[in-house]
Amino acid sequence: MKKYNTKNKYIIAAITVMLGITSCSVDFLEPKPLSFYAPENTFIDEDGMRAANITNLRNMRYEWYGDAAPIITQHIFSEVAIEGTTDKSGPAQDLNLLILPDKNLNSTNTNRIGWYWYEGFKGIKYANTVITRIDNATYPTEAVRNEILGTAYFHRAYRYYNLTQCFGDVPFIPGEAQGPKLDFFSNTRESILIELKKNLEFAAQWVPAVMDKGEVNNAAVNHLLTKVNLALGEFDDAIDSANAVINGGVHALMTARFGVDASDPTKNVVWDLHQAENKSLPANTEALMLVIDRLDVEGDLSGGTQIQRNAVPLWWSGFNTPEGNRGTFDDPADQFELIQKYGRGIGRCRGTSYSTKHIWKDENDLRHAPGNWVNMEDIVYNNPSLVGQGDSYYGKNLQLYTDDGLNILCNDTIRNFYGWPQYKFAIDDPERLKPQGGHSDWYVYRIAETYLLRAEAYFWKGNTALAAADINAVRNRAGAADVTEVTIATILDERARELYYEEPRKAELNRISYLFAKTGKTAYNGKVYSMNNFSQVNFCYDRIMETTDFYNKNVFTRHGDEYTMSPYHVLWPIPQDAIDSNSGGVINQNEGYPGVENNKPPLTEIPVNE
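The chain above was modelled as a monomer; its predicted structure follows.
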């Protein structure tokens, strides 16, 4: 008990100090030293340094949690989803109008681009504190010291990976700043990735293979290293780092039933894999890294996943029966218990037809099977008032059109009418009478993605047979048939099927777009891309235009806003206040956005910490 209390003391102390540690003068890096929990009193031994790394673990989870979780922004800037809030202006729909450096880029009512910028650099600040102070503490062995340093390198690389894929060239901060700093300059994306690779290769030597659930382990390090290797175009190294995960003897695809519903014959392994109670089980060998979120986790401010609110359609309103009466209702006393099954969705993260229909061609794919997947026609008219109105459709399945097919029965097919993966979204929410999606651990990395990353590396090398074998390992677990031909579309489609609401889709699509521009390899659409005009012509934009039916096609929301997008949205804008507060240096703006005329050539060498 004494040891546990001591560890908790260090965790609390480290988090307190990290929130006030000095790195630079903008708000999210402001120094706020606190006497007893000053760095010199905390970062002195193994426990203190480990606790510092826990700060980053704690903050990682917010990418998937809370109202308008940041992961939604990753999805709506890709081909798998759009912003479905159609009853007001402000959400990221008319991107040409709203996605600008001086607009609100960090709000539940607009988008979370700014979250990735500011929280990214917060995580870098916390990691840099450990990196800079690593030799100020004492350790029982050199291996412990190197493990802690390697873990900090992972956390810094995790943040910089998303920053470099979504924003391109950004400042690289090599260590903890010892005073106010207003002279940052952008580094090339390539130079940062080279540094991340070096750091992660060190971490891969020292971070253990087996750690507590929710902590960084060797597989997580090698998984991220695989992404960095791919981003650099170092495909042989990407295969090697993926092999370290797949052949490491600790992690494997879950192919047999397990966990809380293992004895339920109506369920299957895909369902088991995503149940809240199963994600952190010792038997679950698929999870490479998790973020931990429980009802009683100290310091939780997210209110749980809220995934049903965010990503389930607004099924409970906006529907009439063919007889003209309101058909659905969010009544907790509903005899069909629809609100308990599906939650009170608002359709904010609206899956596109690409991700909800077009990629699901295999009838045997468990990920789209009845029970695992819900289509709107699976819902029944549940409004109890229908009984008193004598409406014969009470209890019958929802339909989009009247029986003669002449009139539509839904007043907003964008927000109210689309299918979703129930096996991921069915999370109990005991805190709310009308559920929104409760507390659950969440996958950061799964070995299924490692297979798809290795498949991609094989594809870039021209070995489509081995690429197909890796894709089929994932597909066969889901009961789907083998693929025989592989293009990047094949890989992106499988990622969309397997990793919806898990992967940072925008970052991954951009990484692939950069590779097409860097390699000059002809894409499946017949186009050849170049880094010389990346923000004007790129695979990301072409992919979204090809697969989805919203942007630039005269689609308007109920409120009257049009869905628009331009090629320069391949990169997000650097928030203007970050540029303005950096008065002694230059943080470059991305092409297509105001302020690009003030750019300076980015640094190609990693700066030395001063």
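Confidence is low (pLDDT under 50) at residues 1-7, 19-37.
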